[in-house]
Amino acid sequence: MSSTKRYASVDALRGLTVAGMLLVNNPGDWGHVMDPLEHAAWHGCTPTDLIFPFFLFIVGVSLALAMGGRIAAGAPAAPMAATVLKRAGRILLLGLALHLLAWWIMGKSELRLPGVLQRIGICFALAGLAAIYLRERAQWGLIAALLLAYAGLLLWGGSLDKVGNIASQTDAWLLGRFGYEWNAQTGLGHDPEGVVSTLGALATTLLGLRAGEWLRRAALRPLLAFGAVAALAGLLLDQLGLPLNKQLWTASFVLWTGGLACLALALAHWLIDRRGLPPVGRAFGVNAIAAYAGAWMCTVLLEGLGLMAPLYAQGFGWLQPLVGPYGQSLAFALAFVAVWALIVKVLDKRGVYIKV
Q: Which UniProt keywords apply (predicted)?
């Protein structure tokens, strides 16, 4: 298949993950969020914990689809690498700009440096370079090395609790007050998008890269087989003492979520590309970063200007006697997603695709 072919299934899957991000990030009332829409407190994996790894997996898939044909045809590496690094830099800078906006408008005490877009930019760059400069066997070797080295580091570090694990301790030393959580008195801290756990996130992106090659070659059997084996391996590692943990992005979490993402990709391809079902979520998928960044700015402005609380109370308070506080929170989150679904639908109909 041509590397320029557009897969509606990939756009749809990417779009559903973005819609999921908006849903879990905007509950209106953080004190009454339904359990499936919460991240695991520490160890474990909820449906919400699948969203970010699925997105990074699709980043890898998209890299394979965009560059696989050119790489196979022997296109010069340097121009492709420059393009990858430039786009990765723009994504990273956008993430920093959004955090700067939140720090300024919401009056946050500290500016947080790591974040979702920053992690996406870093993984995009490194996975893109791996696609260009490493052959298939070397890419698998890199995935294995990342998983083994990172798992070994975490286990060697001893404790796997929130502040005692070696990843959080290293991040606290590297980031200090610029991390998500930091205690100036103890010097302890933690960041769910920290530096060290990006090793696991990169492995997820590289799994997506390999899955994208299978998709590009219409090889669904390896995609399904690997998905099932990887998911089972992740659960086995969890039982053997390396728990599923999104915030640490453990090797078990990489395999569990990567396996599920492979199966989801195969299912979406079969249903949408082959059977012709509607690509639900596609409009979000073709404007993914723009939708995420726009929703972030919308939330920051509503919070910073003091409009979020009255909007929630006056616009959705009438629902509480009918569905309770948890239902009210869910209704607000669904309405937020619906507004942005309308925005991206209009952009798609007008052929407006905002690229970073």
A: Acyltransferase, Membrane, Transferase, Transmembrane, Transmembrane helix
